[in-house]
């Protein structure tokens, strides 16, 4: 069964600032202690956007990653297009076999996939494609952030929902 999130919640959004994507990838790498995992590491990034995070891991100088990325729109920067495998998806269904990945990254994606039902399906798909020893990185919005990351407006997330 597939879920089609409401189109308004599926608008493409890519962070094109590569230095910030590199810093985010470094954070993920350190939080998950990826250099200590057996190699090669099969990694999936869901909602790759510009491809900056997938690029960081695919071109890593000391750790062997086999990186695959998916998104609903191809917004990868041209210079990054050959560094990792990429597949378009149409909804929250991930087109890979069960247990296919050692690491799954979903960085600020869940708020874009649609309603609660679609979000649950997204999480169940993440779990399905992770193998029994896999680890994941799931970043979600923080209501108390000073600057809302999508619009870069101070205190936007603090407002009551009808005013946002």
Describe this structure in words.
The chain is of the alpha/beta class and 164 residues long. The chain has one domain (16-163): Rossmann fold, CATH 3.40.50. It is built from three helices and seven strands, in the order αβαβββαβββ. The protein has helices at residues 18-31, 52-58, 116-129; strands at residues 41-46, 65-71, 85-88, 101-107, 130-139, 147-148, 153-154. A five-stranded parallel β-sheet has the order 3-2-1-4-5. Strands 6-7 form a two-stranded antiparallel sheet. Mean pLDDT is 88; it is low at 5-9.
Would you summarize the structure shown here?
Helices cover 21% and strands 23% of the residues. The chain is globular.
End-to-end distance = 32 Å
Query: Architecture, CATH level 2?
Result: 3-Layer(aba) Sandwich
C-alpha Rg, in Å? 16 Å
Superfamily (CATH H level) name:
Vaccinia Virus protein VP39
Q: Kindly state the mean pLDDT as a whole number?
A: 88
The fold-level CATH name is: Rossmann fold
Q: What percent of the residues sit in helical stretches (DSSP H or I)? A: 10-25%
How would you describe the oligomerization state of the chains in this entry? single chain
Strand order of the largest sheet: 3-2-1-4-5
The secondary-structure class comes to alpha/beta
* Apparent shape: globular
% residues in beta strands:
15-25%
Report the uncertain regions.
Answer: 5-9
Would you count the extended β strands for me? 7
Total of domains: 1
CATH class: Alpha Beta
* Sheet with most strands: 5 strands, parallel
Give the helix tally.
3
- The topology string of helices and strands comes to HEHEEEHEEE
């Amino acid at each position: 069964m597939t879920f089609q999130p409401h189109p308004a919640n599926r608008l493409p959004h890519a962070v094109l600032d590569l230095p910030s994507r590199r810093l985010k990838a470094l954070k993920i790498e350190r939080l998950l202690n990826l250099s200590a995992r057996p190699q090669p590491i099969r990694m999936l990034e869901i909602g790759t956007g510009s491809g900056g995070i997938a690029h960081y891991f695919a071109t890593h100088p000391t750790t062997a990653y086999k990186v695959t990325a998916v998104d609903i729109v191809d917004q990868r920067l041209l210079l990054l297009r050959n560094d990792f495998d990429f597949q378009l998806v149409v909804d929250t269904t991930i087109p890979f076999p069960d247990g296919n990945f050692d690491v799954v990254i979903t960085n600020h994606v869940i708020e874009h996939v649609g309603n609660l039902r679609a979000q649950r399906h997204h999480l169940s798909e993440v779990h399905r494609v992770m193998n029994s020893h896999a680890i994941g990185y799931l970043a979600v919005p923080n209501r108390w952030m000073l600057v809302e990351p999508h619009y870069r407006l101070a205190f936007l997330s603090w407002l009551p929902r009808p005013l946002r």
